[in-house]
Sequence to fold (202 residues):
Amino acid sequence: MPDSLMPKTVSILEEGSGPARLKTDALAGLTVAIVALPLSMAIAIASGVTPDRGLYTAIVGGFVVSLLGGSRVQIGGPAGAFIVLVAATVARHGVDGLLLATLMSGFMLIAAGYLRLGQYIKFIPYPVTVGFTAGIAVIIFASQLRDLFGLTLAGAEPGPIVDKAVALAQAAGTVNWAAVLTAALTVCLILVLRRFSRRARR
Fold:
């Protein structure tokens, strides 16, 4: 690294570790916590367990990530993309299988970290990453339609998206308008808050 960059790097590290950043760090952590609470409960429900299990996992996992993380500016929390994987694992192997898969994933990540395999992520094409993320977004959106419209299905909700769409269409006559109104008000509130947030940044 050139010597001209060293003072700037040191000053950034010193600034990031001083008490002046305590307020912004606390706000960042609070933001993640507010998002993590409902998300962790949603993942727990998708796992077939009670919502409090998700809260316990998010709290303990947050401390573990902070303790063992490799970056001082890292914030850990649950990822919505895992809802699809969690639900599929529970449906096929049960909660015990999910716990075993989680434990195995942890050991694999530790091994990948020691072997420095993260550098090879640059060889994954960008369209693959975008397609994977977009596919998960579509699956998550489809999984929320039943609760969004308050539909009552005759049986269990199918996992495959095509079968899910057919089952939801057949239950269209069971729409709960109170649930629809609640969802609409929530979406409007999010849009309004986002608009005010953009104005405040300007």
In short: The two ends are 36 Å apart (CA to CA). Helices lie at 6-17, 22-47, 51-68, 82-114, 126-149, 161-170, 177-201. Residues 27 and 196 are 18 Å apart (CA to CA).
